[in-house]
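Lecture 7 notes: from sequence to structure.

We start with a single chain of 212 residues. Read the sequence below before looking at the structure.
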Amino acid sequence: MHRRDALRAAGGLATAGLGSLAGCVVGRRPPPALSDSFEDGMDAWTTGAAIGPEVPLEEFERSISPSAARANTGARSVEVFTEGDYDDGIAWLTRTIDTTDLDADVVRVSVHAWSESESFNVLRNLAVRIGPEPPTTEEDFPPPETVTTPETPTAVGGLRQPLHRVEGWDEYRFEWRPSDVPDELHLSVGVAVVWEADATHYLDDVRVEGVR
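Now the structure, written as tokens:
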């Protein structure tokens, strides 16, 4: 049994006891497992990248770094630059999330992303993935036009949706019903190249929380 399962069982007994006391408030929403607006930088995150086999990875120019240039909340965000010369490639950042206190059957993930302009063409996709292992290739992320929903349990959750839906900040979110939740998960947020042009985006307010 995972520690999380034991915690849920113990929590259920405690809640049942408290519920019998007149005037007690039960069912208070727990804090999120992750809420990061990058005000303290990216120390908890690692970065990765991938591109098709016909291009050496070192030739794919990209950068991921903390930035004070833009922010959805607070004063900082993460700047993601990707070149478009190869009409391919993805750059992402990943961090580990402790889920021992995440007493919920459904996980909700949200991210705010900034695009310089609105476009009807798909110039870049935002790719988000959560699962028991970190990604190593672009194929580990969901395919285009994906947004997972909690109706059917799956091994990983995520989305891949167009950036540039609006000019400025836009919120992306999905819900995931995991088939199994280990004591830690890996969340990855990336920008995938679609159009042959260089582009800079900003990411902020990454949040992971349980949904009852």
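Residues 1-26 have pLDDT under 50 and may be disordered. Keep this in mind for problem set 3.
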